[in-house]
Design brief:
The structure is a single chain. By secondary structure, the protein is mostly helical. The protein has one domain: Serine Threonine Protein Phosphatase 5, Tetratricopeptide repeat (Alpha Horseshoe), CATH 1.25.40. Helices cover 65% and strands 0% of the residues. It is built from five helices and no strands. Helix 2 runs antiparallel to helix 3. The radius of gyration is 13 Å and the shape is globular.
Length: 110
């Protein structure tokens, strides 16, 4: 609801709690659900970027990238590529490094 009304900051508490610690919806997933965990973390990263929380957004995306090698989801790759495009406009070292890592990881698959 908050994202549809272009209020990403108001969506962040819900997304953070969904992705957060071991007792969260995502934190308690077993290793067989790596794709689901990466999907939710990528969503959080994208919303953080929309809210201009660039450093936290990139930190979340790095967690996704750390697990991406075992994932072959085209939807996740599209989400990561969209994040890369948005992050690349920020003139910070973290955003540029994150965008470059996504580009290097996805190569021509995006």
């Amino acid at each position: 609801m908050y994202l549809r009304t272009e209020q990403p900051r108001r969506a962040l508490p819900f997304l953070r709690s969904a992705v957060g610690g071991r007792r969260s919806a995502v934190g308690g997933l077993e290793s067989g659900y790596t794709r689901n965990s990466a999907w939710y973390r990528a969503k959080l990263a994208g919303v953080l970027l929309q809210a201009e929380e660039v450093e936290e957004a990139c930190a979340e995306m790095h967690v996704v990238l750390d697990t991406q090698a075992s994932i072959s989801s085209p939807r996740l790759m599209r989400r990561m590529e969209a994040f890369r495009r948005r992050a690349s406009v920020y003139d910070t070292a973290k955003a540029q490094d994150c965008a470059a890592r996504i580009r290097d990881t996805l190569g021509d698959t995006a």
